[in-house]
């Protein structure tokens, strides 16, 4: 199965030297499932020829807001709707979660309460999970025909499942080390030193990213098999 990674943003150069860019993080997260990967840097206007170029699609995080007037965002929204209409499995993480919601009729805003950052506990359909988060924007209105499958006191729409689409606001692809270093790099600029210190203190050496990785892999495999079965039945 070939997964197309739609790269919507960049890891800063200093951190990328150690941790890689977002596509590399997702390839590590989903390793061992027999997937092939191809990256399309949509933030640089690099888009696939059509939705059938890959068997499944994954949208990464980004420093951009889904509601901001960047040239690639309307094209990405159109691609999301085309993937969805074709019933090809689609996953979104953080910005990916937000842009999917926006493209399919939901609403995204910069949340008035500010940053949600560090290791966060979420209530999910499979029990409580501890995952790494780093965002100011949130889905405030979920699209119709989708089920909320993860939430926290700070973020009501932290995960959604609906019709060959699965998305999460948090970052299963982030390691604790990368998250600490990324927060530290924001300290004194987009984050106050106190905010950064508090967020870093929440991050343990383990979390439930492996559980989410298994869920994402199982989703891709089962949704793709269901699509193939449907096509063979026609």
- Using the alpha-carbon principal axes, give the shape: globular
Strand content: 15-25%
Uncertain stretches of 5 or more adjacent residues: none
Main β-sheet, spatial strand arrangement = 2-1-3-4-11-10-9-6-7
CATH topology label? Rossmann fold
Strand segment count:
11
Helix- and strand-based class? Answer: alpha/beta
The helix tally amounts to: 7
Which CATH class?
Answer: Alpha Beta
Termini separation: 21 Å
| Cα gyration radius (Å) | 17 Å
What CATH architecture would you give?
3-Layer(aba) Sandwich
Mean pLDDT: 95
Oligomeric state: single chain
The sequence of SSEs as H and E is EHHEEHEHEEEEEEEHHH
CATH superfamily: Class I glutamine amidotransferase (GATase) domain
What percentage of residues falls in helices of 4 or more residues? Answer: 25-40%
GO molecular function: transferase activity
Keywords: Glutamine amidotransferase, Transferase
Protein name: Glutamine amidotransferase
Domain Glutamine amidotransferase: 22-183
């Amino acid at each position: 199965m070939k997964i197309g990674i739609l790269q919507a943003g960049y890891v800063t150069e200093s951190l990328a030297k150690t941790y890689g860019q977002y596509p590399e993080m997702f390839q590590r997260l989903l390793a061992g499932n027999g997937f092939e990967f191809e990256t399309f840097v949509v933030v640089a206007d690099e888009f696939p020829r059509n939705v059938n170029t890959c068997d499944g699609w994954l949208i990464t995080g980004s420093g951009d807001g889904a509601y901001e007037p960047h040239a690639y965002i309307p094209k990405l929204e159109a691609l999301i709707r085309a993937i969805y209409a074709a019933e090809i499995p689609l996953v979104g993480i953080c910005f990916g979660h937000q842009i999917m919601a926006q493209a399919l009729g939901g609403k995204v805003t910069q949340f008035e309460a500010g940053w949600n950052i560090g290791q966060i506990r979420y209530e999910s359909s499979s029990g409580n999970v501890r995952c790494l988060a780093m965002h100011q924007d949130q889905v405030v209105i979920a699209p119709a025909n989708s089920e909320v499958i993860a939430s926290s006191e700070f973020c009501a729409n932290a995960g959604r499942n609906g019709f060959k689409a699965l998305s999460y606001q948090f970052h299963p692809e982030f390691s604790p080390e990368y998250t600490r270093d990324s927060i530290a790099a924001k300290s004194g600029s987009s984050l106050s030193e106190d905010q950064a210190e508090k967020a870093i203190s929440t991050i343990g050496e383990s979390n439930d990213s492996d559980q989410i990785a298994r869920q994402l892999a199982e989703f891709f495999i089962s949704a793709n098999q269901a699509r193939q079965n449907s096509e063979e039945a026609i």
